[in-house]
Design brief:
The protein has 457 residues and is an alpha/beta fold. The protein has two domains: 279 residues, Aminopeptidase, CATH 3.40.630; 120 residues, Alpha-Beta Plaits. Helices cover 33% and strands 19% of the residues. It is built from 13 helices and 17 strands. The protein has a six-stranded mixed beta sheet with strand order 1-2-6-3-7-16, with helices on both faces. Strands 11-13-9-14 form a four-stranded antiparallel beta sheet, covered by helices on one side. A hairpin with a 6-residue loop joins strand 1 and strand 2. The relative contact order is 0.19. The mean pLDDT is 96.
Length: 457
């Protein structure tokens, strides 16, 4: 099997009329801010996407019932009993504010040394245009589609997919039946292998807060008066031990253990390890586990309790000898199948009360359930077979990622096999400054999607 080299892919991209046309569409998409968290540009971008798809013959629906419009674009095959592939995408992005270093304007698509840069080139606008390019190339070069193609695009993914469940309930019958749902995005790993994943962890985020007095108190009373800061720190410490194990009753009882195929996939394909994490992040504290099997099991299949941020007391210049009257911590727990946000929240409240920290106020902020697949569905096995044709270093098939997204919500609504893969690289810097995608990876993804369509002939 002969694989194309990077420069060959770049040359093909630059000489491809259809790819260049939709690259200009991507340029416009990047220039249009669409940020749910700031309520910016959602209707504008949804409308623009509707125009782009309608102009090439898709049957387009734009539903503006909720804050972020829901866009469905259908390409119908003339074949009787044709199967259906759904592309789940999102057109919203995270902000690109002054807290992040960007070489150029983040909302202007730029190209440097074989890479494109801009907010959303990987997460997730670049995937929309690449996949649409593949559909258009197939029709231009081959003819009628052998499979129905549906682009399902939401505008609140970066804010826990607000209202997506309502849209899915409303349009469920319009989307089904389907053979495969291709997830929004994905990337190659550090071994230059394409990762194909079948799930993600869930999450619950919550605030823990306490008020110990009406005002801050002089610290001369520290021997006899409890401060909000110590009270909160002790409460947090009661929830996890030094090895990272969660000490909240009932959490591990509900965890759905991985099956043998899921364990085998992780053992075979996962490349994450403690040494690489030390080098990547410059770790200065001890890791929680060194054993590879234990590391992989925890990383992919177990929940994790983390502190996102702490705020209490005086943090200005010099000193201020006080006992803080208020303290707050932003917390999260990554969830695995078997754990729901509602269940975990209740167990956290029960634990704090039982441990004597009944003064702690627990405030829920957001939550998503987790989903995991053993990647054995025929449509996913077919996808794996097609992907192997395009990546010289091979592919990495994993039953889940450690990140979070609305996979569980979509699977509960549609029940369709799902697989995540895409055009990103290990340093695409999603959510960070200089978000980027290789031009070669972009074009390879186009070719893979086109081949996936052809596999239904």
């Amino acid at each position: 099997m002969t694989f194309s080299k990077e420069q060959e892919q770049i040359d093909k991209f630059r000489n491809d009329e259809i790819a260049q046309h939709y690259f200009e569409v991507l340029r416009t998409l990047i220039s249009k801010k669409s940020i749910f968290a700031q309520n910016i540009g959602l209707a504008d971008v949804a409308g623009y996407l509707g125009e782009i798809f309608a102009n090439v013959g898709a049957e387009v629906t734009i539903d503006e019932t909720y804050t972020a419009p829901f866009v469905i674009a259908k390409f119908k095959s003339p074949r009787e009993n044709a199967k259906t592939i759904i592309f789940y995408q999102h057109y919203d992005t995270v902000p690109a504010d002054n807290d992040q270093p960007w070489t150029d304007d983040p909302f202007k698509l730029t190209v440097r040394k074989g890479y494109m840069y801009g907010r959303g080139v990987d997460d997730d606008k670049g995937h929309i245009t690449a996949r649409l390019t593949a559909v258009r190339k197939y029709v231009r070069e081959v003819g009628e589609l052998p499979v129905n193609i549906i682009f399902m695009m939401e505008g609140a993914e970066e804010s826990a997919s607000t209202d997506l469940d309502k849209y899915l309930e409303k349009y469920r019958e319009d989307l089904l039946p389907a053979d495969l749902l291709v997830w929004e995005q994905g990337n190659k790993n550090t071994e230059d292998q394409l990762e194909i994943t079948g799930g993600n962890k869930g999450i619950i985020t919550f605030d823990l807060s306490v008020e110990s007095a009406e005002v801050d108190i002089h610290s001369k009373y520290g021997a006899v008066i409890e401060s909000a800061s110590w009270y909160l720190l002790n409460a947090i410490s009661s929830m996890r031990d030094g090895s990272g194990r969660i000490l909240i009753d009932g959490i591990y009882d509900q965890v759905q253990e991985p099956n043998e195929r899921e364990l085998d996939l992780v053992e075979r394909y996962a490349i994450e390890n403690t040494d690489d994490l030390r080098r990547l992040y410059g770790l200065k504290l001890p890791v929680l586990t060194k054993d590879r099997r234990d590391f992989l099991k925890r990383y992919f299949f177990e929940p994790a309790l983390s502190i996102e941020g702490l705020s209490t007391g005086y943090e200005g210049q010099g000193v201020k000898t006080i006992l803080p009257a208020q303290a707050i911590a932003k917390m999260e727990m990554r969830l695995v199948p078997g754990l729901t946000p509602a269940y975990v929240l209740e167990k956290i409240k029960e634990h704090l009360k039982k441990a004597g920290f009944d003064r702690i106020k627990v405030t829920y902020t957001l939550g998503e359930e987790s989903y995991r697949s053993d990647m054995s569905a025929p449509a996913i096995l077919n996808l794996i077979q097609q992907a192997e044709k395009f990546y010289e270093k091979g592919i990495s098939v994993l039953p889940t990622s450690a990140g979070t997204g609305p996979m569980h919500m979509i699977y509960e609504a549609l029940g369709v096999p799902m697989a995540a893969f895409g055009l990103g690289n290990p340093n695409s810097r999603d959510h960070g400054g200089d978000e980027n995608v290789s031009l070669a990876d972009y074009y390879t993804h186009i070719e893979l999607i086109k081949e996936l369509i052809a596999s239904y002939e």
